[in-house]
Structures are given as structure tokens and as C-alpha cells.
């Protein structure tokens, strides 16, 4: 791949990561490239699974929908020739599971899970996750408030409630 094409791809990726709804014609203008060239690059990166999907970030607290998000640390026994992949694959196939990451530290996997209630999430951990062969232990952390998610500040800053006093 030539340097110009690689630089264009990186520019496209950086912009799409923050503004996934951009029109390809508008993106081409921003990149200083032809619309067809940008469209071809985006299509190629989708085909290569460099671009894996497009997502909308929603502040569920403002919708009235009850939703509980938990981060679950999971310690597992790696399997011969498969490492952590078999257990990670089993976990990410559950519809409640939002994300699975291999991490460093005291635990091996970090699972992000969404449910309607604390009890529902706890039941998932105790009935589906913990009994998996190779899972040694779990630690569940519930997200109480999101301040920033995917690079976006959630909510709005509150203005100071102090009155301005001038001499």
C-alpha cells in the first residue's frame, strides 16, 4: 500500500470513529479527495473488517429506560492451543454480553454486560458465566454513572449555581 493511500485511510478512520454518520461526499471534501476514492476506501476497509460496524451512542438515563451496565472481571484457566479464545467466544455469543476483552492484571477477561436489573445481571453471572468450565473467579462492578463514553462527554456541564456579585 502506498503512503498516500495509507494516510487517506488513517484520516478516514479517525474521522469516522467520531462522526460515523457523515456523508461520503462531505468526507471526501474534508479529506481533499474524490468521493469515489473515499467510497472505495471505506468499502474496502469494511470488506477487510478494519471498519467493523457503525454505532450510535445513547444516553439511556435520559430515555427513562431502566438499564444496568456491569463490568465483570473473569479469571480463567487458559486452554492448551486455544489460550483464552474458547471461553471468550462462548461469552461473546450471549446476547446480554456487550463486549469481551483480554486484559492484563489479576484477571484475564473483562466482560461488559447489560441487563434490566441488578438481579438479572447477577443471575447471568451466577447461572451462565461462573459455571463455565475453566472459569476460576469473577468480580462484578456496576456502572453507576457515565461521565464519558467512547470519547463523548455524557450529559451537560452544570453552570455554577453561585450568583455573580460585582462591586
UniProtKB/TrEMBL annotation:
A Pfam family of this chain: AsnC_trans_reg
TM segment ranges: none
Domain Transcription regulator AsnC/Lrp ligand binding, first and last residues per copy: 72-145
Gene3D superfamilies, per the entry: 3.30.70.920
Name the UniProt record assigns to this protein: Lrp/AsnC family transcriptional regulator
Organism encoding this protein: Ruminococcus turbiniformis
